[in-house]
Amino acid sequence: MLEEQSRLVDFPSLAGRVYLNSAAESIPPLAVHEAAEKYWQHKSQGMEGRDGHFAELEACRESAARMLEKKPGEIAFCSCSSEAYNLLGSALALGGKDEVVVSDLDFPAGATPWLAAREKPQVKLWENRDGALDLGDLELLLNERTQLVQVSLVSFLNGYRLPWAPFRDLVRKLAPNAVLSVDVTQAFGRVELDCLDADCIISSTHKWILSYHGGCVVAIPEAKAERLTTHAGGWFHLDNAFDANRFEQAGIKQGAASFAVGMPNFPAIYALRAGMDYIQAVGVAQIASHADSLVQQVHEGLAELGIKPMAAFDPDCRSGILAFVDQRVAALNEALLKDNIHVMHHAGRIRIALHGYNTQQDVDALLAGLRSALA
Fold it and tell me: Which of 154, 258, 333, 346 is the most exposed place for a label (fewest CB within 10 A)?
């Protein structure tokens, strides 16, 4: 992944193009394609293939547990982060007197379930200042009624990475009853996670972790299992799904296991295990070191072009994303596409995302393309 020869072997679709959109869709390595073939082989065996399915599920759980420094029993899988957050809402069962804090840099999946609740808690918005979140603003929002503080470690919007330790300490001090939940979708597999002591960690699987759609990792430590147990129907998360008393009561497993309410999405599980194993073989620290230097070069190149990113570059809190707003976004994106340079543009914003498979040549091509388009 970090060298040209192995990159072209593992990611053949990158040949001849500059792909800088991993924050939306990553390019899976061939190992993930091979995992999908393995699923097909097992599925083709019919019921006998389930032995392979469930063995892969446990192997995937163990791989995720290694990456998130958890026990396998503290890991579960949903179909997407939206499902996970709605199940978290079910577990918390908040009422009108409870308070929730979300930020305007969070993705809607983590920020909106509390707005759609039948009995809405009081939702307080932690608003960014010039693309960053100020702890002084957060301090005014926290109190003993705060039951949940939901953040993204890295913002999908502009790449801002939350300084975790001071944030965590402030929440623990001023909102001692709050569950601290963090979405690591835009960080998992790309940056070294410093938020592993959160009460709930959630991540989609089709971005930096190099896997497929239809998956979501949920991590809940045993110490929070009783409080963070869902109240959802299903069967896979029940202890008594087929017992004689199954129509009288639902024996829900506690903690992370309660988030896996139905049959696992096995194709996504096979792919996720392969993606995580690939990332671990390369090393997240090595990926971050390689790609962070490229991100810094893009920041410097944008500054030379007179473009101000939405979030300032912080060498102590780096991520793989940077973005800028410009009235010429559509024209800039069209010009880049003519040179086979792929970024994301939406609502007047261009977002650039660099992973371990990106290169110095990608950065040079991007900056040259922008320079030409602006001229």
Answer: 346
Bridge partners, residue 345, by sequence: 350
**Residue 188 has which token pair?**
């998992």
Rg of the chain in Å (alpha carbons): 21
Q: List the one residue out of 167, 170, 150, 163 whose CA is nearest residue 104.
A: 150
Express each pLDDT in 61-74 by its tens digit: 999 999 999 999 99
pLDDT tens for each residue of 139-151: 999 999 999 999 9
Question: Please, what is the average pLDDT of the chain?
Answer: 96
Three-class SS state of 151: strand
Which pTM was predicted?
Answer: 0.96
Please name the helix (run of DSSP H) or strand (run of DSSP E) that holds residue 285, with its range, or none: helix 284-304
Q: How far apart are CA 175 and CA 155, in angstroms?
A: 23
Separation of alpha carbons 156 and 184, rounded Å:
10
Which CATH number fits the domain 4-20+284-374, given the four candidates 3.40.50.11540, 3.50.30.50, 3.90.1150.10, 3.40.640.10? 3.90.1150.10
